[in-house]
UniProtKB/TrEMBL annotation:
Residue span(s) of domain F-box: 19-56
Function: Acts as a component of a SCF E3 ubiquitin ligase complexes.
Keyword Nucleus listed: yes
One Gene Ontology term from the biological process aspect of the record: gibberellic acid mediated signaling pathway
Name of protein: F-box protein
InterPro entries membership: F-box-like_dom_sf, F-box_dom
Location of the protein in the cell: Nucleus
The species this protein was found in: Stephania cephalantha
Amino acid sequence: MLSSSKCCASSDPLWDLIFHLVFPRLDPKTLARAACVSKSWQTAASSDLIWAPICLSQYPSLSSLMILPMSTTNSYHRLYSLAYTSSHRHRHRPNPHHPSISLHHLAFAIDVSSSSSSSVILMTLAVDGRRLTSRDGVFHFEIDVESGGGCDEEEVRVRWSVVLKEWRGVFVVMDYVGKGMRGGGRRWFTEEVPSPPESGCTCGGGGGGGGLVGEVELVLGERRKVERVRVGLMRSVACWRYVSVDDGLSYLQRFLLPSSN
């Protein structure tokens, strides 16, 4: 349970007013500035009472992973920092040929929201990597959705994030905004993912690491509600085939495990 006892450094009524009425109205950047004022302000500005609503609004599926056994942190402030940094990362790291992580070390989080407002959530899904199974050894997975929302909007925002256990890393694979493609009761979205030529990535056997594409597919049922979600990584150059599980994990590892590079 979230409590303000750890973050309120004083019982002064003015301080209580600032914490309960002012801080919750601040955006993340302003909260970061407020944390620089003093030690007590830093403690207050890092409180889960402040950051939990922000995380639930901006990263709903990542927030739902907090209850999974893989999570050893209860800090929404740290969760936001990881997710935000990953979303704005432009630095790429080399990719080893053989991954030291497996699906058991990961969790997937998929959010589908309105393109006009990310706070209008159409569907959110979080799944432990231990539940994921691959057909034919390729990095392509199907996930059942127990209570999927509708997906009627023409343009949507689709975000697929991968989390390393114990919140040691978060990587946003896709953050797509647009119409995507549709047909046969399905909607699918693709986006080229970061893959620098100097990485030495062997994903798909082509070397160089260029031309990797992330894919999120929504399988719709009655009333156009999402019943299943399929995600994968594929090589767009020449073949449009899914990469192997090992190649997909190697790609993710260079973002999730900086120390292995």
